[in-house]
Automatic annotation (TrEMBL), chain A:
Coiled coil: none annotated. Pfam families: HTH_26. This is Transcriptional regulator. It comes from Alteromonas alba. PROSITE patterns: HTH_CROC1 (PS50943). InterPro entries: Cro/C1-type_HTH, Lambda_DNA-bd_dom_sf.
Automatic annotation (TrEMBL), chain B:
Keywords: Membrane, Transmembrane, Transmembrane helix. It comes from the Bacteria. This is DUF2975 domain-containing protein. The lineage of its organism: Bacteria, Pseudomonadati, Pseudomonadota, Gammaproteobacteria, Alteromonadales. InterPro entries: DUF2975 (IPR021354). It comes from Alteromonas alba.
Length: 70, 222
């Protein structure tokens, strides 16, 4: 059984009713990079990015990151 | 430079300074590539025209052959203190031989086989410099070019001594090993520098491959 880290950006954005464009403007990350995060293509996330996302979405890192088991 | 700074540089090629010498080197290797191709064509023409004009009658042949041999110069006087006056090795020019096949063998090895290796090496180098000129540095294509270049030099370094020996034997089988005061034998020398350079290039290819993987990971770090 393999485990993987999943970014729940989609769900948190939906809960906060925030669009990708708005989040991109608030956090200062390009739409392309946010899309990479959303689609799970990202290999890693910087603490600074995580902090900016948490501040913009008013959530905790644990809300964005989830351990997934296949 | 910290790893963060270096990875940032890798990630944004636009921040890299414009390449100074690579466009000029690319033009230079382009020139050498086309020159090698042209030299091979001219060489093949020369071998065919001159070789096919060598007379069939052995006594009428006066072929000049230039090839790699070991040569021993023997004293004319058998009572001399030293029977072997001098030993030389390297590319020797033998004038007025009766060789015909020897002419084809010597020139095919010297011009065509070396030419093919040069052509392939210059092809990889010009492709490599074309990528570097456009700032495509840590790229899988470059890894392949460096690896091919290394393998090419390794193969040539390992094959050429055997080829030179075999060609030398074949040439001597036709023209003979003894010529008055001159005794010839095939020349063998392993180009150790070629093996060292190819090893360094293969290691460099491996490093480039790791760098490419690091760059890919870096570009997917948000």
């Amino acid at each position: 059984m393999s485990k993987a880290i999943k970014i729940n950006l989609d769900m948190v954005m939906l809960q906060r009713k925030m669009s990708l464009t708005e989040l991109s403007e608030r956090v200062g990350i390009t739409m392309a990079n946010l899309s990479t995060l959303k689609t799970g293509k990202a290999k890693a996330i910087r603490f600074s990015t995580l902090l900016a996302l948490c501040e913009a979405l008013d959530c905790k890192p644990g809300d964005l990151i989830q351990l997934e088991e296949d | 430079m910290t790893s963060q700074e270096s990875s940032d540089i890798m990630n944004t090629s636009s921040q890299l300074p414009a390449p100074k010498y690579t466009p000029a080197l690319k033009t230079w290797f382009d020139f050498l590539y086309y020159l090698s191709g042209l030299a091979m064509l001219v060489g093949a023409g020369f071998i065919l025209v001159v070789g096919l004009n060598i007379p069939g009658e052995i006594s009428e042949r006066h072929t000049d052959i230039e090839y790699w041999f070991n040569a021993t110069v023997i004293a004319n006087d058998v009572t001399a203190a030293a029977s072997e006056i001098m030993q030389v090795d390297g590319k020797l020019k033998l004038n007025n031989t009766s060789g015909r096949a020897a002419f084809f063998i010597a020139n095919t090895d010297s011009i065509l086989i070396s030419g093919i290796f040069s052509l392939l090496a210059f092809y990889n180098l010009r492709k490599l410099f074309a990528n570097l000129a456009t700032q495509r540095i840590f790229d899988l294509e470059n890894v392949a070019y460096v690896k091919k270049l290394g393998l090419l030099i390794l193969v040539y370094s390992l094959v050429s001594p055997f080829l030179t020996y075999l060609c030398g034997m074949a040439i001597l089988a036709e023209i003979g090993e003894f010529h008055k005061q001159l005794q010839l034998s095939p020349y063998v020398s392993i180009p150790i520098e070629g093996i060292l350079i190819s090893g360094a290039l293969l290691v460099l290819a491996q490093i480039l491959e790791y760098a490419f993987q690091m760059k890919q990971e870096q570009s997917l770090t948000i």
